[in-house]
Batch of 2 targets.
Target 1
Amino acid sequence: MSTTDADRPVLIAGAGPVGMTTALALNARGVPATILEADSADRDRSGSRAIYVHGTTLHTLERVHPGLGENLVEEGLVWPTRRTCWRGKEVFKRTYDNPGGDGKFPHFTSVPQVRTEEFMHEALDEAGIDIHWDCAVETVESSPDGVHVETSDGQEWETPYLVGADGGGSTVRDEIGAEFEGDQSKNSFIIADVDELEDEDEQWPLERLFHYDDPDVGGRNVMLVPFTGGWRLDIQCIEDDDPDELVTDEKMREFVTAVMGEEYADNLTWVSSYKFLQVMADTFVDEHRRVLLAGEAAHLLAPFGARGMNSGIADADEAASAVAVAYRAQTDAVARDEVELYAARREKAAEYNLNAAGQALEYLQGENPATVLRKEAAASLADYFEPAGEYLDDAPYGPHDAPPIVSTGNY
Ligand SMILES: Cc1cc2nc3c(=O)[nH]c(=O)nc-3n(C[C@H](O)[C@H](O)[C@H](O)COP(=O)(O)OP(=O)(O)OC[C@H]3O[C@@H](n4cnc5c(N)ncnc54)[C@H](O)[C@@H]3O)c2cc1C
């Protein structure tokens, strides 16, 4: 490792939540970091996307920038009620007196990703970390001594390490020759954000609702999750649905009215349809162990179980930890080991998270006859046997555990 490395900032491609966390986590470890971002500073990041922030993620953010986890807790909400309906009938409902638990941070908080990112931008300002906007990474050339990067604004950069946090279409991933492997959900899903009403007394209750085969929306599965300022409405398309036809203003007004009532029909703020990819890169690091992939550059997960941003933030923290040691290492072998350990841990975590999100997706798509039978049996027993209703309530989100890895225990 050359002694001049200590002066050169580590580069991060992408100012999404993962890139920003990587920069903060490097800064917390005394390593200078600079972010290169393809978009312009005045970009629009509308759409709530990640709303469910796990408690472990709050701890990580607080650790890398004191106050950041607290800001999210203050901004977010912890909904107290879980409710599930089956074909028009309630089969499970539970309200918790203390849904967040007694720890310093709640088990989770529900806050739109746009707000999370705004807090991260504030944290970067406080830490004095620069984002170079309109500065897309175009080429990446790594060698045993470091990385040469060219960006769309014509600049050339030398860095000891590059973290590729440039999202699902990652240029960094392509440049190091890594490839996504995996598959795609069969069904499409429509995801929309609905604003809260001005009149607090008229508000839909703060509950996370899952409705199987909701007769009011043509027998489709519906999920409703509150976050600060609004609700996430998720509708699972059924066979023969053309999602493009369903996301029109008129059709979405009908859906919102059917699920939440006419008073919400004008409150739709964002809608999009997805087929979810379930993929991960075949390697998270380059051959010279100088480039690390993190977040959606490394893996894409169906959102059930909320593992996307949460696991990306865990990648960011662990990438920063590895790079911080490698950056100061006195031998190349130690530096390489740290980066390889990062890959080993986070590739295992991604496999685990993919499997967990895949279980949720498989359950929702209902292709397995045994699963279909289990759901039907649980629905018929739910009136008399609470665990049957609880099973229906819990199953759409997949397993809850974090990857069983000797590390911080993060998702
Ligand atoms: C509908 C939906 C719901 C979701 N719900 C949840 C949830 O509840 N919980 C959860 O944990 N996750 C959820 N997710 C996933 C979450 O939104 C993503 O995992 C998260 O945004 C990934 O962050 P990232 O920083 O890796 O990538 P991005 O957010 O995609 O950021 C990548 C950044 O890199 C920039 N970039 C791209 N190319 C380049 C380049 N060549 N050079 C420089 N910069 C570049 C982009 O402009 C962008 O700023 C959801 C996603 C969707 C779509």
Target 2
Amino acid sequence: MRFSLKNQIVVITGGGGFLGGKHAEAIAEIEGIPILIDIDEESAKAKAKSIEEEYGSAALGYKVDITSTEEIETLADDLLKRFDKIDVLINNAAMNPQMDYKTEKEETRLENFSLERWNDEVSVGLTGAFICSKIIGPHMAKRGKGVILNIASDLGLIAPDQRIYRKKNLSDDKQPVKPVTYTVVKHGLIGLTRYLATYWCDKGVRVNALCPGGIYNNQPEDFVEKLTNLIPLGRMANPDDYKGAIQFMCSDASIYMTGSIVVIDGGRTCW
Ligand SMILES: NC(=O)c1ccc[n+]([C@@H]2O[C@H](COP(=O)([O-])OP(=O)(O)OC[C@H]3O[C@@H](n4cnc5c(N)ncnc54)[C@H](O)[C@@H]3O)[C@@H](O)[C@H]2O)c1
């Protein structure tokens, strides 16, 4: 029973995305009710529908922009009216920048990185998690029970190794890099995790972070090879590899855990 989420309401931000849908499956597998929220309404609703069909459990998809306080308040009001509680919040949404090799001026590079892009990426990955926690967390604290799980990254603990993003035949000033925002947002989420864990430690709200390593998703072969060389287990993650951790961290199986940073990265941060 410790791994059960029977009838528990689990809000997943970025639920329409690649990993968000996997988190929702993990929740449905242990009888929770995933609420997938995303700016991409079609994807959030389609994933919720396929979970209902596959697992026979309730699942809902909502169009919500997590950078909007009003939209999160409306969502929370609606869920509280429907279910009277929110048990778990998974802060998963982020702008996951694809590396763009086409621009003349390589805009991922620090020297060229625009303030607008910095603000956009921080506002989704970090400010969005703050807004969702600020609005949903107090309902959990009032009930004396709840879990917040922040999805960080191995890059929440280490700097990106920019050598793995290098392209042949490009001068140094044209080489793409993993943007500064990704590392800053993920390190920030770890700070937010520790802050919230202690803030609500006497209110029954547990707050933890998961740091996943890179998931194989048809990236270019040379990139996969270079990244794999940095991973002791010798491969990138499969999309299902985090489901066990999601189930553990969202359920009572992790009842004595708060403020923890769980790293599941094939051992990358050991090397
Ligand atoms: N994919 C990986 O290899 C990997 C590795 C480590 C950590 N992560 C982290 O896991 C999380 C999910 O990654 P993913 O690969 O599924 O990314 P993804 O881009 O597929 O999904 C992110 C989702 O967030 C949504 N989103 C963006 N802005 C939003 C906003 N303002 N409001 C609501 N939703 C918004 C997007 O529409 C998208 O569906 C991210 O935090 C990412 O940093 C991913």
